[in-house]
Design goal:
alpha+beta, 4-stranded antiparallel beta sheet, 4 helices, about 45% helix
Length: about 130
Amino acid sequence: MIEPHIGQLEIEISQQIIKFYNDRIGKYPSQIICHFFDTEIVISLENSVTPAEQTLLKGGYKSLAEQVRFYLEKIIKPELKILIEKIIGQPVLELMTNTNLATGRTGIIVVFNQLPQIFNHESIPNENVKNLAE
C-alpha cells in the first residue's frame, strides 16, 4: 500500500469535513484550512454559522444561539471523531471544537498518539510545536 502525502490527508480531511458540516448542520463552510502539527491537526472553518443561529443573533437571542451551537457541537463531535479516525487511520485521543458566533469561525483541534503512516512526515512542523512547550 502506498502511503499518502501529508497534503493528501489534509485535503481529504478538509473535503470530508465540508461535506460533513453540510450534511449534519446544513451549512457549507466557505473556506477550510487543515494542517498537521506533530500529533495534532488544527482545522479552521470560515462562515460555519447556520442561518438559524444568525437569525437568533440578529433578533437579540445571543444566549440561545450559543446554546444551539453548544448542543450541535456536542451531538456531532462523536461522528466527527470517527470520520477523522477513518481518514488518518489512528485513534483520536481528544477532539476540541469552538465556534465564535460573532465572526462565524469554527476551530477544531484533533489530538492523536502518533503520526499516521505518511510518505513525507518530515514536512510536518513538529519542532516548532515542541519549542513552544519548553
